[in-house]
Amino acid sequence: MKKLIFVLVLSFGAFSSCDNFLAETPKDEISVDQLLNTPEGARGLVNGLYRDGQGQSFYDSGGFGGADVMMGGYMSGYFDNEGKGERIQGQVAQDLQVGPEVLNQFFDGWWSGHYEVISRANTALKYIPDMAGLSDDEKNQLLAEARFFRALNYFSLVKFFGDVPLVTEPVEGLENIEVERTSSETVYDQIIADLEWALNQGSLTEGAFSMNGYRITEAAASTLLAEVNLQMAGYPLQQTAHYANAAEAARAVIQSGTHELVQHGESTEESAYNKMRTSDTDREYIYGIEYESEIDPSEYPRITVPGVIRPEGINYGRTLNAYRPIEEFTRFYNPDEDLRIQNKQLFYNSLERGGQEYQFGEWAPYLWFEEDAIFETGRGGRDIRVYRYADVLLIAAEAIARSEGVTGEAVSYLTDVRNRAYWQTDRSEIEASLTGLSEQEFVEEVWKERLRELALNFKIWSDIQRTRQYPVPSESNPGEITFVDVVGQSNNWGQTYEEHHLLYPLPDDEIQTNPALEQNPGY
């Protein structure tokens, strides 16, 4: 299995527990001996996991095809890509034609990128325990971070591909590289074990991610653990006992008091959503992919400006709207009450520049809009948030309702998120509308809020996978949503979902190289 062979070449990154993780430092290739036998090598090995996150291209937006993680939005049929004529993954996802014969290179990059991160984590986990020159606390912290990233990458693989090879030791030669697929349940068990080790033995800090040098914290590990348990409770495993575990992990974050929702300022320009757009230091931020304009810039600003306009002074050779919510998606929001669908909150549809107003005729992501990058530097610097506190509250609300009933606690957590969006509605009205709902009715209210609140956090396809329910907006009453079985439902591009669409195909390159692998059904 060629993509599991670990090439021991890393850029050296200085370890820091307090400075910005991407602080500029000399970067030189270090030898294998240094990597495996010195504290500096250990730190550099783990630091490299932060840059790649879930494979180097998973969140990077650098191209007309958008970031790999956007694939789920295209599969849902609710997001479009202006550049899909030049990069086909968006088009074939909407058409539900994602077979390996069409997207082999795309899925091969996705697959191999995840396994490269896993391989680095495995190497760290093998060599750091016996390494001299590191205190026990630092060893445990580095090991916890390595386990977090191994868990994060396996979680992504098992969600999107189903059964995958489970490799927990470094691949340091050509022997035993034809690894069979491991059952999803066993892979999930390993993910849980890694995260529980990180939390119980890992010397992770209790502080906030952005106040901890952008290193993994207890809250980040607990949030991932909560989401993993929520996914396990749904399809395909349907191990409903995990709802209680998801609630427990989410409560650990809530009760720590470390994180909170960003609150609105005095104007819509100072809304919570605009504060999150312009800052990477708030306490809602739990874990994300860090960018720095001078060292490792983000390309996300480029994909927030539709190519149909060309404002004066734009500093990119070309821009495009790579993650456009189509009109049907915007109907998930009530425009009379929900601040998130107002212009220049989560999305925007016009831009003023040089005394001229540009109307797009469509919505584009505003959360990733950076004025300096677009009009001055051409280099984005804002982070991409993977987890934030709103996510935790919504996991807690759903998991508590499923495991304990529609309690006042569950209602309160959902109300926290909805009340911020329905900023001119009294909190008591929202609570009253949720109190007394049946379990299923309440859970569907949580699903609705996940659609709206996490629209740019790439959760829509994972939610469809685990619930097997497809959201349909009302044509006459914006904000009203019903859920129908996804299998047999048509998307907004006229294509009908079948069971096999809920997993991606394994890349043909991997199957040809590793005869032990079998393709997913339907491909």
Write structural notes for this entry.
The chain is mainly alpha-helical and 523 residues long. Among the domains are: 206 residues, Serine Threonine Protein Phosphatase 5, Tetratricopeptide repeat; 92 residues, no CATH class. The chain is built from 18 helices and eight strands. The strands form four sheets. The chain has a two-stranded antiparallel sheet with strand order 1-3. α6 packs parallel to α8, α7 runs antiparallel to α8 and α13 packs antiparallel against α16. The N terminus is likely disordered.
Summarize the structure.
Pfam families: SusD-like_3 (PF14322), SusD_RagB (PF07980). This protein has 523 residues and is mainly alpha-helical. The chain contains 18 helices and eight strands.
Question: Which features would summarize this protein structure in a list?
Answer:
about 525 residues, two-stranded antiparallel sheet, mainly alpha, Starch-binding associating with outer membrane, SusD_RagB_dom, about 40% helix, Serine Threonine Protein Phosphatase 5, Tetratricopeptide repeat, two-stranded antiparallel ribbon
